[in-house]
Amino acid sequence: VQPIISSSYLGFGHGSLERDTKEISALMRYLNAHRSGETFALVGHSTGCQNSIHFLKNGDDDMVARTKSVALQAPVSDREHAMMEPNYEENIGLARQMKKEGRAEETMPRSVFWAPITASRFASLQDVGGED
User: Fold this and answer.
1) Which residues, in sequence order, are CB contacts of 39 under 8 Å at separation 6+?
2) CA 23, 3, 118, 132 torsion-angle sign
3) Half-sphere CA count of 2, side-chain side, radius 13 A
């Protein structure tokens, strides 16, 4: 099964690993209850690698126990890549400011990132110590 979760495709710009883990757990519970899914394997690509690791650390205990293998394909550090961009300090500063002003769920300006992304998600992915 290839899950299409809320953060799939361009949806990653307004999500979180916590939400993804809940959705992955819900899918696994469904597969276990209604499709005889006994054991599972995860294959994560790019941000999917982060999802896989987050799931192993924070997913439903029963579903994590049923996960027998995990493959990480092209794992990335969003922050390390972002820090090489010429406008990194300006962009992360804007995200921090927007969060401070209570605008964390507003979309960052298009010039900051190639896809729609909220200030909260941008900081989560690209700030030092970000949640994701």
Assistant:
1) 66, 67, 68
2) positive
3) 3
Give how far Cα 88 sits from Cα of 37, 111, 112, 123, Å.
Answer: 44, 12, 9, 11
Q: pTM for this one?
A: 0.81
pLDDT digits (tens, 9 = 90+) for 28-50: 999 999 999 999 999 998 888 98
Longest dimension (CA), the chain: 51
Do 24 and 37 form a contact (C-beta atoms < 8 A)?
no
CA distance 88 to 31: 42
- The mean per-residue pLDDT over the stretch 100-115 comes to 94
The residue type of 126 is Q
| Rounded CA separation 107/122 (Å) | 9
Beta bridge partners of 70: 42
Q: What is the three-class DSSP state of 67? A: strand
User: Pairing between strand 40-45 and 67-73?
Assistant: parallel
Please state, rounded to an integer, the average pLDDT across all residues of the chain. Answer: 92
Torsion of CA 91, 96, 102, 104, to 10 degrees: 60
